[in-house]
Amino acid sequence: MKAEELEVIENQASRFTVSHKKIIAYFFLVLLIFISATMVVFEVFEYRHDYRQMTTYLREEDDLNAEWGRLLIEQQTFGSTSQIGTRAVTQLRMFSPPTADTVVISLPSLEQKK
């Protein structure tokens, strides 16, 4: 009987170790799934953060391009004013009159008309 009892105990022990191995394997797989799911959540969060930051930068780029265009127009406007004055003097021989030849005309105000 002792041999039979030892055989039963060995079968139980082998079943015990097999069931423990399965439990450990399942636990390990569940742990890997949990870690994978957590990493997916972090990656999605990081992607959304980066996308929000990129759209902010693109909006800022559009604003800067619009301001650059306005500055170019302003520069051309001021540049053309001096260019007009230079051409008036050189090509049309125009000049500013001396202060003695200048006459200031003042318009009557509305209060004086009454």
TrEMBL record:
Membrane topology reported for the UniProt record: Single-pass type II membrane protein
Keywords: Cell cycle, Cell division, Cell inner membrane, Cell membrane, Membrane, Transmembrane, Transmembrane helix
Biological processes annotated in GO: FtsZ-dependent cytokinesis
Record's GO cellular component terms: cell division site; plasma membrane
Subcellular location: Cell inner membrane; Cell membrane
Pfam families noted in UniProt: FtsL (PF04999)
Membrane spanning residue stretches: 23-45
Protein family (similarity comment): Belongs to the FtsL family.
Function: Essential cell division protein. May link together the upstream cell division proteins, which are predominantly cytoplasmic, with the downstream cell division proteins, which are predominantly periplasmic.
Subunit details: Part of a complex composed of FtsB, FtsL and FtsQ.
Protein name: Cell division protein FtsL
